[in-house]
Amino acid sequence: MKDYIKIDEWKIIEEGFDPHLNKISESIFSLGNGRMGGRANFEEAYSGDTLQGNYVAGVYYPDKTRVGWWKNGYPEYFAKVLNAANWVGIDIAIDGEQLDLAKCKVDSFYRELNMQEGYLKRTFTATLPSGKQVSVEAIRFCSMADDETGAIRYTITPLNFDGEATITPYIDGDVMNKDANYDEKFWDEISKQAWENGGYVQLRTKKTGFEVATGMMIAVSQDGKTLNPELKPVEKEKYIAQKFNVKLIANTPLNIYKYAANVSSQNHEAKDLPQIAKATIQRVFDKGFDQMLQEQAAAWAEKWKHNDIIIEGDASAQQGIRFNIFQLNQTYTGEDARLNIGPKGFTGEKYGGSTYWDTEAYCVPFYLATAPQKVTRNLLYYRYKQLDKAIENAKLLGFKDGAALYPMVTMDGTECHNEWEITFEEIHRNGAIAFAIFNYVRYTGDHDFLAEFGWEVLIAIARFWSQRVNWSEDRQQYVMLGVTGPNEYENNINNNWYTSTMATWCMDYALTVAEYIKSTHPQRFQELAEKVNYREQEESQKFREIIEKMYYPYDEKRQIFLQQDGYLDKEQILVKDLPASDRPINQKWSWDRILRSCFIKQADVLQGIYFFEDNYDIDTIRRNFDFYEPRTVHESSLSPCVHAILAAKLGDEARAYEFYLRTSRLDLDDYNNDTEDGCHITSMAGTWMSVVEGFGGMRVRDNKLWFNPFLPAKWQSFSFHVGFRGALLNIKVSKAGVQISNQTSTEVSVVVYDQEGLIKGNDTVTFDVK
Amino acid sequence: MKDYIKIDEWKIIEEGFDPHLNKISESIFSLGNGRMGGRANFEEAYSGDTLQGNYVAGVYYPDKTRVGWWKNGYPEYFAKVLNAANWVGIDIAIDGEQLDLAKCKVDSFYRELNMQEGYLKRTFTATLPSGKQVSVEAIRFCSMADDETGAIRYTITPLNFDGEATITPYIDGDVMNKDANYDEKFWDEISKQAWENGGYVQLRTKKTGFEVATGMMIAVSQDGKTLNPELKPVEKEKYIAQKFNVKLIANTPLNIYKYAANVSSQNHEAKDLPQIAKATIQRVFDKGFDQMLQEQAAAWAEKWKHNDIIIEGDASAQQGIRFNIFQLNQTYTGEDARLNIGPKGFTGEKYGGSTYWDTEAYCVPFYLATAPQKVTRNLLYYRYKQLDKAIENAKLLGFKDGAALYPMVTMDGTECHNEWEITFEEIHRNGAIAFAIFNYVRYTGDHDFLAEFGWEVLIAIARFWSQRVNWSEDRQQYVMLGVTGPNEYENNINNNWYTSTMATWCMDYALTVAEYIKSTHPQRFQELAEKVNYREQEESQKFREIIEKMYYPYDEKRQIFLQQDGYLDKEQILVKDLPASDRPINQKWSWDRILRSCFIKQADVLQGIYFFEDNYDIDTIRRNFDFYEPRTVHESSLSPCVHAILAAKLGDEARAYEFYLRTSRLDLDDYNNDTEDGCHITSMAGTWMSVVEGFGGMRVRDNKLWFNPFLPAKWQSFSFHVGFRGALLNIKVSKAGVQISNQTSTEVSVVVYDQEGLIKGNDTVTFDVK
Fold it and tell me: Which residues act catalytically here (chains A, B) (predicted)?
């Protein structure tokens, strides 16, 4: 837990330079535009503690798996998010002395992430060992308007001397991943070249053969006048720079403009990359920094129009929620169906892979409501394209006949993860993927998606479940053995209620969708049935039998769903009775002790109740919530949001707010002491869910938006935007009422506190607050 | 499965050279004397596929743990058995051409492990690329009579030429472990020196600081006459050699004698090692090769007097059982309580660590019956000395008040293993250690051991169990959650019958022994109680309550002990119905599929029934055997022996024999396709158990030996030796009867087929065979 970020509604601010916090700030102040991004490393050299990180979306390296003990079925490779060429670096030497904040006296250090306009700004005054003083302002961004580019304006002003500066802007591809399993470098150099005022380096990833050309162009001005210093190219392995000398004049600012591009073979012919890089940079160079910055602000303004949540009366909460929305937008724009939402986005490289069940379970609701429909569609299409690999993955584990098991972690569809209890057993992820299809169709009404892509995924998942259960002669029921639920503090358990519930739901939904397609798109149904070799009668009968005879653990005495067989054999202790010194248990206890305990990492039974809320009466929800939440340690960043939403549903506003607080400033306040590795991007969507589904009580039922909002006691008001079937609504909840403004001409029917109302185009309707 | 070893009752023989089998043979033909040993590598250079391995008992290196995903509680280091200096090497060049069997035409290749006399012999004729032919005979052994030494006689005879040989006997410490986690070398050089006709290299292990000096002395003779060639020392890093040239005369044998010593800082002052090495080699050099070889034969004759099992009518079985006994004796002599029985002995480095529960569960019965009492006592004392580390180990996992958890794998008492489901959960090992104490006292009658050492171990183990169970409010019984039983094809299960049975037995035995010590050694009891802070009333009451209220899973319908909760939920398939292509399942199935299946790796419930046989009536044993054995895949080398013994107990002689066959030639026939990594040393004791406890039906009850033998149908007779309370018996089972000869003057009372008889000193009594 840290507390050094200054509160501001639109900005993340750090004042004063503390080298111990630098890696945390590098994560928090990260920049991205969905295509490229990186940590908030300094432009000038820094010999202190830093994690240098620049990333290009979708470019990965299959690092050879490292395990202690090999188990059959482990994947051979783990796709790592690649640390790519550093395009931000500008070395500065003044009369031969290097500017390096680790070696200077630093004053007035200020770092700002301007979320409204989408740039990173840093200013400071440094006194070099020689006594020379300079002030610096650096502004940097990854362009949202032109997503293969970025730009920097680096302004250096000598304060107490005239002198000579040696400036070396560079592209350095000689980088390595901190998390490389065998300390290998992942890039080979293909070509590099210096141009008149720039240069590029073209690199190729080992094994995967992705090529990326990273280039730069330089402009310099002093006191507003363009300079044309003599540039001397410097070439090293995977490195190119343009070095030049400039006379520094006391109190006269020198501006260095660095325009950069990252162009990759994902989007262009590899052989053309150098010229495309050059043309791309030339384009933004010609446009100029100020123009780019204006376009950046405009692009972000458009995002905020659909995304923003405004909280009145709580600047800290306001900053927290905006930070989460900002980072989600930096990570994924939904333009490219080959990309997904990495758990660290562009803020770090830990965990590897880009796609977890987080996407379907947590991010889809966010993008459904705040982005064009195609964004979520792209996320679903991503999984559709990886269906073959999911079927291959299941085959490796002994499944057949088109059964699919989607990977726990992946980049290109192949499984990366290698803990048997997760990789092979945390199979509920398959359910989340099916649920996301359901959720998308429920939200958008885009039923055609089912016939086009969705059902192929659904039937493959249903087949997996039908093979993964087995008939227990002893119980005369179907059981699901050897799984790990969302609560990863239980491994290899039997009959996890959530997983079993998901499994039969998936089978049922696959059958429902089959019937739907059969009746509405009969020819397409024939095509699909042939394509996937659907033995309709046999398979549907089998699914129905399993659905009918599935065993779900239940405790009659407490009238609760049981997380798994034997859960009540555990010593029943509540989290509130755990000594503080024992927490977090995942750092304080040995793994077996955690497994034996009743403590729950994140929503498990309650995750199921969240997904299928309408299937349970309020007393059932309450009994389960009251039993499980007090046993939950919330040691996953994905946990509090589900609890916030359910607490709100149960009318427990204080606790809903308490859960919200745990997520909204997770990274800003470094709650889990791990922000230095990168931010928790996917869980940020959970924060949004806490506000919109929790405080706003938003649901989709019967093709309508339902709201059941309450106003947290500390707040004067909050408002959020929701896009729904062509309309864009702003919902503002205050003591004065629930005011819904339709910002489009498409009329929308909503239900507020069970009272239906029509919101006409460009109209505003106010409902009484409960 | 291979079939290339020639059958001989006293020898292991390989005829013809097949480079593809070389690593297997290197394992099978390994040599050792309990103190040093190594694989059957060639003396001359060999550029083909080989695993070079020389080992010094008790010398290890804590290699940094390698895992995919770190779990709290994992040990930082894994103690590796160290590949040590190669003392067997003698490079041979003939007129500049190197003798290397990978580059010669090889004829008449013959390799023999003479088990009766304890040496390795190899002869061959090689045609060099130049066409020159030589015949070679090499004889090598590690001296049992002088266990820091070894010797080689290497005889080379030119067949079709006169020429000049350049001979380079060397000591090479520049070796590395094949299983090093990070490809590091583990030895540093301390000193080296060439002497007049020898030299030594002194090495120190990194981190652990063990020092070993390995030295050699050389003698040469030709046609029976001593030669004194000019020796030229060659020094390289961690390497010393004495190079010399000799005129080769056609058809005239040249003998090179190489005497070697391995002296270590475990047994000597580190600073004295060079001079001790020199003195040690000088001692055997003066004695000479022939005298050493005679002493070797005599030492082995003494071993065989106590160990040998003679099978008449089945040379293959005879060879198999002798091989097992031979390797066990090569691995561990019981002279040094700091040593233990590594799973690969001196035959390979895989697995690391020297001590597993194999020692207590499988090896102790062998050494109890075939070695002086002190040998087993030393094995128990080894664990006693490591009690503090076992308490430390338990503390790391959250246990307290003197509870001990012995490590799964260790060298010095600290845990090495790092799979959570094994390291933290396969805790039944603690029970085997307590059982070995019980077994030792039952066999030897040495009750004083309990007061001296045993009870301290027992109470620490009992305390562990009392903390490891928990009270289930739901069941109103104590349960044991999150364990892995001996059947490692189930992980993190609840209420494993074997583990729970072991746990309460340990608590009960600790209390029984406490009462015994209190009544017989009251003062010692006071001392002990103070030393371990035994809160007698409180702790004994707690143990008794757990013993009384422990839950053991049981199936009423089948009247069997249930391996664990939920076992009957699994799909019940029998091994005989598994397709051959699916086996072994540990190579063909993914890990989760194995875990979900009902298939059992090795005796689990049946291991408990084996240990506590007298607690169960024959029908109970039969019901459990008939249920579990058909579900057991026997994919551990430790599995068939327990089943052989129980099958014999149940009168199923054919199946008992069948199980015996699976173990007795496991390595000789490379059953599991992994002998190239080394032999399965600890399971060899299981083979012995199959014969003595299975076919011989030997038990100890009421301070007497009981026999209930049968003669396998294929055999004419079998006989084995058993030492018991000062007497040495030979039991011969043939159609003519069960003949028991007392080879000592100590009279012994035995029970054969429930009929008691006294075997007077040096007397033979024959009982009718059943």
Answer: 488 (proton donor)
Gap from B495 CA to chain A (nearest CA, Å): 10
- Which of A218, A188, A183 shows the shortest CA–CA distance to A203? A188
CA distance A228 to chain B (A): 52
Between β-strands A254-264 and A149-158, what pairing exists: parallel, antiparallel or unpaired? antiparallel
Where does CATH 1.50.10.10 sit in chain B? 372-399+411-633
Distance CA B689, CA B687 (A): 5
- Which residues does A514 contact at the CB level (< 8 Å), separation at least 6? A455, A459, A525, A534, A536, A540
ipTM of the complex: 0.91
**Rounded Cα–Cα distance for residues A185 and A191 (Å):** 17
Which residue's structure tokens are 């507003």? A224
Q: What residues in chain B have per-residue pLDDT under 70?
A: none
- Give residue-wise pLDDT tens across range A82-124: 899 999 999 999 999 999 999 999 999 999 999 999 999 999 9
pLDDT digit string, tens, across residues B249-259: 999 999 999 99
Distance from CA of B473 to the nearest CA of A (A): 7
* Token pair 């001590």 in the structure block, residue: B355
B119 phi, psi to nearest 5 deg: -140, 165
pLDDT of residue B312: 97
- For residues A687, A690, A691, A695, the Cα torsion angle rounded to the nearest 10 degrees is -160
Check the annotation: does B601 bind a ligand: yes
pLDDT of res. A90: 98
- Amino acid code (one letter) for A554: Y
CB contact under 8 A, A68 and B71: no
Q: Inter-chain contact B470–A596, Cβ cutoff 8 Å?
A: yes
Phi/psi at B554 (5° precision)? -150, 140
What pTM value is reported for the model?
0.93
Cross-strand pairs, B138: B122, B154
CB contacts, 8 Å: B353 with chain A = none
* Residue B66 contacts A where some CB pair is shorter than 8 Å: yes
State which CATH number among 3.40.50.1370, 1.10.8.60, 2.60.40.290, 1.50.10.10 fits the domain covering B372-399+411-633: 1.50.10.10
Mean pLDDT, rounded, of chain A: 96
Contact A74, A152 (CB under 8 A): no
A:475-494 residues touching chain B, CB 8 A cutoff: 475, 479, 481-482, 491-494
CATH number of A5-305: 2.70.98.40
Rounded average pLDDT over A23-31: 98
Coil/strand/helix, residue A318? helix
d(CA B319, CA B431): 34
**8 Å CB contact between B277 and B193:** no
Grade residue A68 by pLDDT with cuts at 50, 70 and 90.
confident
The CATH architecture of the domain made up of B31-60+84-305 is Distorted Sandwich (2.70)
Is A357 labelled a binding residue? yes
Q: Is B65 on the interface with A (CB under 8 A)?
A: yes
Active site residue A15: no
3-state secondary structure of A16: coil
Selecting from A398, A479, A572 the residue whose C-beta is nearest the C-beta of B593 gives A398
For every residue of B94-133, DSSP letters joined together read ETTEEP-TTSSEEEEEEEEEETTTTEEEEEEEEE-TTS-E
Average pLDDT over residues A435-443: 98
Q: What is the pLDDT of residues B383-397, one digit of tens each?
A: 999 999 999 999 999
Three-state DSSP state, A592: helix
DSSP B47: -
Q: Hey, is the C-beta of B558 within 8 angstroms of any chain A C-beta?
A: no
Q: What is the pLDDT of residues A186-225, one digit of tens each?
A: 999 999 999 889 999 999 999 899 999 999 999 999 998 9
Binary contact (B475, A569; C-beta < 8 A): yes
The answer to whether A400 contacts chain B (CB < 8 Å) is no
